[in-house]
Amino acid sequence: MGTMAQIGVTGLAVMGRNLARNFARHGHTVAVHNRTAARTRSLVEEFGHEGTFVPAESAEEFVASLERPRRLVVMVKAGAPTDAVIEEFAPLLEPGDMIIDGGNAHFEDTRRREAALRQQQIHFVGTGISGGEEGALHGPSIMPGGSAESYAALGPLLEDIAAKAEDGAPCCTHIGADGAGHFVKMVHNGIEYADMQLIAEAYDLLRGVAGYDPGRVAEIFRGWNTGRLDSYLIEITAEVLAHTDAETGRPFVDVVADRAEQKGTGRWTVQTALDLGVPVSGIAEAVFARAVSGHADLRAAAHGLPGPAAGSLGPEAAERFAAQVEQALYASKVVSYAQGWNMISSAGQEYGWDIDLGAVAAIWRGGCIIRAAFLDRIRAAFAADPGLPTLLADPEFAAELGAAQEAWRTVVGTAVAHGIPTPGFSAALAYYDALRAERLPAALTQGQRDYFGAHTYRRTDREGSFHTLWSGDRTEQRTD
After folding, report:
1. Which residues contact 282 (CB under 8 A, 6 or more apart)?
2. What is the C-alpha to C-alpha distance for residues 101 and 144, in angstroms, rounded to an integer?
3. CA atoms of 312 and 386, how far apart (whole Å)
4. From the CA atom positions of the chain, what is the Rg in Å?
5. What is the DSSP string of 230-278?
6. Is 60 a catalytic residue?
7. How far is CA 286 from CA 256, 278, 375, 383, 420, in A?
8. Catalytic: which of 192, 201, 285, 326?
9. End-to-end CA distance of the chain, in Å?
10. Secondary structure class of 9 (helix, strand, coil)
11. Residue 146 phi/psi, 5° resolution?
């Protein structure tokens, strides 16, 4: 028998190809396979010098080249293509072998596939991979789900190729059973949507209120990236804003159509949050902001509606305002991350996943799109108190949000006064205020529900469920 591979990758588009190369660069023998054999040959011809590849042109040849337990990484499009690959390879595998889905699958699909393959004693490992094509090659953040048994055999290889945080820890950990890995990757992407929206709003305010051009805004973002906002997204924002379009000589951001697209993971996050009953208003507003940007017909029809006249601040006032925007951006960012962690915690309880919330923060410190310096502080917060109900209750973060109050509220008020939409900043502040409020107007909402639908209500002065007979002005107690 020829050379046996420690791991195999089928699906050699950019992500799959780079992941295979990453394994090979780290000294692992990698079996490679693609539905189109020419792509397999191309990989070996172009990058064969990077390590040991075992090319296979058929599913049977591919499986036969893998050492036991077989570790088979699937890198194809989510949905039907993934199911087709599973149907092709599962009959060729034996008990104890594993199929690793590294695509952006919906976690419910992963749960279904894991349950079905478990009946065949095959491990199905839904694995979130963040970092794009560069991360796949140089070190992504990896979020594997599945059984603890599968991680024992697979984890060391994944940790080897994962990004490394500044303390040297691999950005990979076993997230939890069945669909936990893909769920956490979905929430990562939801937080990413919120983070990008908040950054875009900060940019819009610095142009529309402070009156800065893109080059000056780029300088401000570079300054922010040396402090508590240090992150990959802030870093690349400065690069994008400083870039000049080669054809026109204009700022690059001014020649890009203002219609943001999306692939679906943000929508999945919001839809799932609704199913779980978890408020993720920051992520939701980011998804809706992209949707609004794409409705050119609505925007054209409403373009002439009345609103405040444009106007910018003087130099000194603009500088003060920029500092306030930094406060608002940081505070809103903390709220969005807190919502994401709350969603992960709630899902863990709902689906029986034992997710270490601090470990999630730890593996997002490198490789992934939302990697940021303050993730280490999130890790520390949950390490100090694993039962922390919300990141906003952590003493350090609570103190920072308290210090940001005046600036945060000034920025949101200024945006309203200038007619600049800030759904992310506004939603974050509203969520913060809702959590800290002693009482919410939900009491009135529940009273309305009882009036028109006899939905009952709870009381503050005694236990039980109650309904008011509104026509007779009487109250009766209902059994739960």
Report:
1. 194, 197, 198, 332, 335, 336, 339, 424, 427, 428, 431
2. 9
3. 46
4. 25
5. -BHHHHHHHHHHH-B-TTT-SBHHHHS-S-----SHHHHHHHHHHHHT-
6. no
7. 19, 16, 21, 29, 15
8. 192
9. 68
10. strand
11. 85, -170
Catalytic residue chosen out of the listed positions 77, 87, 88, 185: 185
- Peptide bond before 69: cis, by omega within 30 degrees of 0? yes
Taking the C-alpha atoms of residue 215 and residue 233, their distance in angstroms, rounded to an integer, is 17
Q: Is 185 a catalytic residue?
A: yes
Residues 6+ apart with CB under 8 A from 118: 124
Per-residue model confidence (pLDDT) at position 473: 67
Q: What is the reported pLDDT for 480?
A: 56
At 167, the amino acid letter reads D
Cα 426 from chain centroid (whole Å) = 20
The predicted model scores a pTM of 0.95
C-alpha closest to that of 85 among 69, 74, 94? 74
> Whose structure tokens read 């109050």?
405
pLDDT of residue 428: 98
Would you state the structure tokens that stand for residue 273, as one six-digit string? 């949050």
How many Å apart are CA 131 and CA 145, to the nearest integer? 18
Token representation of residue 53? 């590849």
CA distance 325 to 200: 12
User: Phi-psi category of 366—alpha, beta or left, where left has phi over 0 and alpha has psi -120 to 50?
Assistant: beta
From CA 289, how far away is CA 297, in angstroms rounded?
15
Q: In sequence order, which residues have a C-beta less than 8 Å from that of residue 464 and are 6 or more positions away? A: 458, 477, 478, 480
Separation between Cα atoms, residue 468 and residue 447, nearest integer Å? 9
In the block, residue with structure tokens 């980011």? 286
pLDDT of residue 309: 85
pLDDT at 311: 81
pLDDT along the chain (480 residues), means of 10: 88 96 98 95 96 96 97 95 96 97 96 97 97 94 97 97 96 97 97 97 97 97 97 97 96 94 89 97 96 93 91 92 98 98 97 96 95 95 95 96 97 96 98 96 95 93 92 69
Q: With H, G, I as helix, E, B as strand and everything else as coil, classify residue 170.
A: strand
pLDDT at 479: 59
Q: How many angstroms separate the Cα of 51 from the Cα of each of 30, 31, 32, 365? A: 8, 11, 12, 28
